[in-house]
Design a protein that fits this description.
about 65% helix
C-alpha cells in the first residue's frame, strides 16, 4: 500500500461527501413535495405526466396499497422487458441482426434489471440490440432505482409521521425520484462520460486498423446513456461484457474515479435526506458513520491483501512490490481496483473494473462479505437505507433488552410485530444464498458450470447467489452461468432478495406510521451517538458472522490457507 493510493481513495470519498450533503437537502424537498430549483422547469412536466397517466399524487396509500402498487408496476415492467428480449430479432433498432434471447436467459435478464440486480449471463455487445439496451435495460435502470428510493422514503415517513395510516403515493414518489434526481444527474454525467471517450451512437460497429496493420471491429452503440444511470442507480449492468474494465465504458483513471463517485453519491445523499425528513440530522450522521466505518475497513482489507501479493506469483519470478495485478487493469492500479471492488459490493451496484476471482482469497472475500452483510454499506439507492433502518430496529431492540426498557427508535416504540417482520426480512438473504448454494454444490447440472474445483469453486457458487440475492449483480469470474439451471435459480434468488424483503419491510412501515411519535425522555436510548454507532456496526457484523462464517471458512478462508502453503487450483 502507498500514500498515493490512499490519497486517491480519500479524494474520491471527500468528493462524494461534498456533493451528497446538498443533494440530500435537495432530495428531502423533492420527496416532501416542496419547491426546488428545478420546479419551474420540471414541475409542468411532472403535472403533465400525472394528467396523462391518470395519477392523483395527492391521493396517498396505506402500506398495503403502496406495496401492491409497487409489485404490480414491477410485474408489468418484467413482462414488457421479457417480451422485448424474446422478440428483439424482429424489432427495429437491431443493426447487429441479433436474434431473440432463449427463454431462460430472457427470464434471468428481465428479473435482473427489474430487481436492480443487473446480473448478466450474456455479453451485451454480442447479444443485445440497441432497442433492448435503450428501451429495455436503460429504462429499467431508472425505474428499479426509483422504486428503491420510493420504498425508502415510505419507510422514513413512517418514522416522521404520527398516528396516520398512509405512507405516500408510490407512483408519485417514483416519478419524482426519476424526474428530479436520477434523470438530471444521468444527463450531466453521461455527457461527461462522452467527453472522456465513451461512445454514444446508433452505429453498430467501427472497423479500425491496428498498429500491426490488421483490421479490428469495435462494437459501438448508445453506451454513455446506459453507463450513467447504471452507476447512479447502483444497477451495474454493463453495455459490454467486460463491464467497467472495458476501455469504452471506463477509459481512464479519471473516468474510474467518476464511476466510483457516481455509485456512491445518490445512496449517500439518501442518508442525508433521511435526517432532514425525520427532523434530526444527527440520526443521518450516525447511520452514515456506520456505513463509512465498515466500507472503509473493507477497502483497507482488500487493498492490503492485493498489495501483499501471493507467494505463488513471487515464486514464479514476479516482483512482489507490485502486488497482485492479476485480473486488474494497469491504468487503474491496485488502490483504485480495491476501492472499486469494495464500493460496488458495499453498494448493490455490480459493476466491476477487475476480476474478483483473480484477487487473493482474502481480497476476493471482501466483496463477498460486503454483500453478505446485507448490502447496506451504503447499499443501493433506497434499498441500502431501508435495509440498514431494519437492522437499526433490531439494534435498538437489543439495547432495550440490555437496560430493561421498551425500545424506541426515532420516537416510535419497537414492539413484537416490528421485530417479527424485521427478523423475517433479515432471514431472506441467508436463506436464499445458503439454500441455493447447498443444492448447487451437489448437483452435476450446476457443477458443470464451475470454472474451478475446491474452495475456489465453492466461492464461485457462494458469490453468484450472494450477488443475486443481494441484488448486486457483480460476478466473481469463472462461472459459466448461461444455462437453464443457473439462469432460473439465480433469477429466483433475485426475486426473493428484492420483493420478499420489501413486503415485511413495508409491513413495518405500516405498523410504525400508525403509532404516535413520542418525545424523548431520560430513559430513551440515544440513537445518534457513538454508543449506537458501535452497537449498530456490531449487530451488522454479528448477523453476517453467524450466518455466513461457516460457508466462508470452506471457501475463501480455506483457499487462503492453501495459497500460503503454495497450493492453488
Amino acid at each position: 500500500m502507498t500514500v498515493v493510493g490512499w490519497l486517491q481513495i480519500l479524494i474520491v470519498l471527500l468528493a462524494v461527501l461534498a456533493f451528497a450533503v446538498p443533494l440530500g437537502a435537495f432530495m428531502s424537498k423533492v420527496f416532501a413535495n416542496e419547491r426546488t430549483v428545478l420546479t419551474p422547469v420540471l414541475g409542468p412536466v411532472e403535472r403533465g405526466f400525472y394528467r396523462l397517466s391518470g395519477i392523483d399524487p395527492a391521493k396517498e396509500q396505506t402500506w398495503l396499497g403502496y406495496t401492491l402498487g409497487m409489485l404490480a408496476f414491477n410485474a408489468g415492467g418484467f413482462l414488457l422487458l421479457y417480451l422485448l428480449l424474446r422478440f428483439q430479432g424482429v424489432l427495429p433498432l437491431n443493426p447487429q441482426g441479433f436474434s431473440g434471447l432463449a427463454p431462460h436467459l430472457a427470464f434471468n435478464t428481465a428479473v435482473s434489471f427489474v430487481t436492480n440486480t443487473n446480473w448478466q449471463s450474456y455479453g451485451g455487445e454480442t447479444t443485445m440490440s440497441h432497442l433492448s439496451q435503450m428501451a429495455g435495460l436503460t429504462v429499467q435502470n431508472f425505474l428499479s432505482a426509483a422504486t428503491g428510493m420510493a420504498l425508502a422514503v415510505a419507510l422514513v415517513r413512517s418514522f416522521a409521521r404520527s398516528g396516520t395510516k398512509t405512507v405516500g403515493n408510490f407512483l408519485a414518489d417514483m416519478t419524482r425520484a426519476t424526474l428530479y434526481v436520477l434523470l438530471p444527474l444521468a444527463i450531466v454525467t453521461g455527457l461527461w462520460q462522452v467527453s472522456m471517450g465513451t461512445p454514444q451512437t446508433f452505429e453498430a460497429a467501427a472497423t479500425v486498423t491496428t498498429l500491426e496493420g490488421a483490421e479490428q471491429t469495435l462494437a459501438l452503440g448508445p453506451v454513455a446513456s446506459q453507463l450513467a444511470i447504471k452507476q447512479l442507480g447502483t444497477n451495474g449492468g454493463g453495455f459490454y461484457n467486460a463491464n467497467s474494465a472495458h476501455p469504452y465504458e471506463n477509459p481512464s483513471p479519471l473516468s474510474n474515479a467518476l464511476t466510483i463517485w457516481q455509485m456512491l453519491v445518490v445512496s449517500t445523499a439518501m442518508v442525508f435526506a433521511f435526517g432532514r425528513l425525520v427532523g434530526d440530522r444527527r440520526q443521518a450522521t450516525a447511520i452514515l458513520s456506520v456505513m463509512a466505518l465498515l466500507l472503509v475497513t473493507g477497502i483497507g482489507v482488500a487493498y492490503w491483501a492485493e498489495a501483499a501479493g501471493t507467494p505463488i506469483l513471487t515464486a514464479a519470478g514476479l516482483d512482489p512490490s507490485g502486488g497482485n495485478m492479476e485480473g486488474k487493469e494497469v491504468r487503474f492500479g491496485l488502490a483504485a481496483s480495491a476501492m472499486f471492488a469494495a464500493v460496488t459490493t458495499g453498494l448493490s451496484d455490480g459493476a466491476v473494473n477487475a476480476m474478483h476471482g483473480s484477487f487473493t482469497p482474502i481480497g476476493g472475500m471482501v466483496p463477498m462479505v460486503l454483500i453478505m452483510l446485507g448490502e447496506v454499506l451504503p447499499g443501493g439507492v433506497g434499498s441500502g437505507l431501508y435495509g440498514i433502518l431494519v437492522i437499526a430496529i433490531v439494534a435498538v431492540f437489543v439495547a432495550g433488552l440490555m437496560v430493561g426498557r421498551t425500545p424506541e427508535y426515532l420516537g416510535k416504540k419497537i414492539e413484537a410485530k416490528e421485530m417479527k417482520m424485521a427478523i423475517l426480512a433479515i432471514l431472506i438473504l441467508p436463506a436464499a444464498i445458503l439454500g441455493f448454494s447447498s443444492v448447487s454444490a451437489v448437483l452435476p447440472v450446476a457443477l458443470s458450470g464451475l470454472g474451478n474445483a475446491g474452495p475456489h469453486g465453492l466461492s464461485e457458487i457462494y458469490y453468484a447467489y450472494s450477488s443475486a440475492a443481494g441484488n448486486n449483480g457483480s460476478a466473481f469470474g469463472g462461472l459459466s452461468a448461461n444455462s437453464p439451471w443457473w439462469n432460473t435459480t439465480l433469477g429466483l434468488a433475485m426475486l426473493l432478495g428484492r420483493f420478499a424483503y420489501i413486503v415485511p419491510m413495508m409491513a413495518i412501515a405500516g405498523s410504525l406510521v400508525a403509532k404516535p411519535k413520542l418525545a424523548p425522555s431520560s430513559g430513551t436510548f440515544p440513537t445518534h451517538g457513538p454508543l449506537f454507532v458501535g452497537l449498530l456496526a456490531g449487530i451488522i457484523l454479528i448477523l453476517g458472522g453467524l450466518q455466513f462464517f461457516p460457508a466462508l471458512a470452506l471457501g475463501p478462508i480455506a483457499e487462503q490457507v492453501q495459497m500460503l502453503g503454495g497450493k492453488t487450483f
